[in-house]
Amino acid sequence: FCATPFLKKPNPMNKPQILLASSSKYRRQLLRKLAINFDWANPNVDESPHPGETAQELVLRLAKAKATKLT
Question: Over the chain, what is the mean pLDDT?
Answer without folding.
Answer: 84
